[in-house]
Amino acid sequence: MAVATTRQYGRPGSVGSVLTAAAILSAAGTAGALAAWAAAAYLARKVVSSDVVRPDDVEILGVGNDSVILRATAMTVSRGRYGLWLDGGAGHARLGDLIDHDEQSRTVTRELLGVDRGRLRAGWARWNQYYYAGTPASALGLEHVDVEVEGDLGAMPAWFVPPSATVPARDTWAILVHGRAATREECLRAVPVLHRLGFPVLIVSYRNDADGVRSPGGCCHLGEVEWRDAEAAVLHAVDRGAHDVVMVGWSMGGSIILQLLSRSWTADRVRGVILDAPVIDWRDVLTHQGAANRVPGAVGRLSQTVLEHPHARRLTGTEVPLSLDRLDWVRRAWELQLPMLIVHSDDDDFVPSGPSRRLAAARPDLVTLVSTRGALHTQEWNVDSETWDAAVARFALDTL
Predict the structure, then answer these.
(1) What is the tens place of the pLDDT at every residue in 368-378?
(2) Which of 142, 154, 243, 246 is CA-nearest to residue 189?
(3) Looking at 24-104, which runs of residues are DSSP E strands?
(4) Strand (E) positions, 1-90?
């Protein structure tokens, strides 16, 4: 197996959690305590909700033949290549780097690299870091096959991209796992370099994806349950000729993969792991997000207790209580037994890079960390695709 599985974890709703809740109740009084519990339960439900609505967030001010003018925001002034969803996702355009940033008028002009579908015009759109939109064939010009991976909830759609015919094919498959509330398109950026290296590539979906199977409660479990779908993907690959696999994940996809390594009997088929802006420690992420959204610290901590407590499941809709200890890989660093590449920006605004740094410091024998600057969450490739591709190629050639 890839990691040891003998460690015992703190019981959800442990004495420390109960005492924390009791202290809040005592300090706040009954009315305040009820308000705190209500706020914590609401926050916990938001954390595990899989129905994430992404509103339009970019104002298009003008469109030229090879450029587009946008309202300046933290996203639109970012260096690199990005995508724009148009008309609620019906259309898509690809943008290149900055041409001009007028701070006085609060506008930016970016290269227009192409319109994949729909009509690009003045109005509102939604920013995306995927850059590519569509299938491997339509977005990358690479042959692919639509396949289904059979999981415990049913068939999950996936794309299979055969290896390049110009290089020796490997019997190690690359299995790509997107992040929370994302789509398989998030993974397309990694396909060209893996394809050139001779990897067969399987881009998978998992429960509660927009185009996938739905779990009974329809909740996101932060990797605690979704790892079973990654396990099904490993079995799918092995059944079709893969000797072993390398797992590649973005954001919560990293959490899913790490749970597979510690909990699945298929973990001995995994040769290595490549993670982009991974969630290494969910407590760290939830605390950061709470502070960023001005959630009182006590309410934020109480919401974590709600997520872990078995009797609070009816408040969150989860199938099982979550174990934030089990989702903390800084604490579990000693268990790792596989080579791992982590690419993480120190400017990540959603999943801070601190846990990635701490994990790399704890296990320098296994973890290679490529730290970058200037990229928001999972946008390391967008800002510097050459560095991203080179790191993946070097890791693959040296390790796999």
Answers:
(1) 999 999 999 99
(2) 142
(3) 58-63, 67-71, 82-86, 91-102
(4) 58-63, 67-71, 82-86
- The C-alpha atoms of residue 59 and residue 72 are separated, in whole angstroms, by 9
Taking the C-alpha atoms of residue 152 and residue 162, their distance in angstroms, rounded to an integer, is: 26
Spatial distance between the Cα atoms of 376 and 141, rounded to a whole number of angstroms? 28
Q: What angle do CA 49, 52, 57 make, to 5 degrees?
A: 150
Integer Cα distance of 392 and 191 in angstroms: 11
Task: Enumerate the domain spans of the chain.
Answer: 58-128, 136-281+327-399
Q: What is the DSSP string of 289-343?
A: HHHHTT--HHHHHHHHHHHH-GGGHHHH--SS---TTTTBTTTTGGG--S-EEEE
Written as six digits, the tokens of 339 are 């080579």
* Cα gap 128→135, rounded to integer Å: 16
Query: Per residue, what are the HEC states of 114-177?
Result: EEEECCCCCEEEEEECCCCCCCHHHHHCCCCEEEEEEECCEEEEEEEECCCCCCCCCCEEEEEE
The CA distance from 306 to 42, in Å, is: 10
Beta-carbon contacts of 130 under 8 Å, excluding residues fewer than 6 positions away, are 83, 182, 183, 185, 186, 188, 189
Handedness of CA 122, 125, 129, 130 (dihedral sign): negative
**Distance (Å, rounded) from C-alpha 353 to C-alpha 370?**
11
328: left (phi over 0), alpha (psi -120 to 50) or beta: beta
CATH number for region 136-281+327-399: 3.40.50.1820
In three-state secondary structure terms, 99 is strand
Condensed to tens digits (0 to 9), the pLDDT of residues 266-297 reads 999 999 999 999 999 999 999 999 999 899 99
pLDDT band for position 29 (cuts 50, 70, 90): low
Is 95:58 a contact under the CB 8 Å cutoff? no
Convert the pLDDT of each residue in 289-306 to its tens digit: 999 989 999 989 999 999
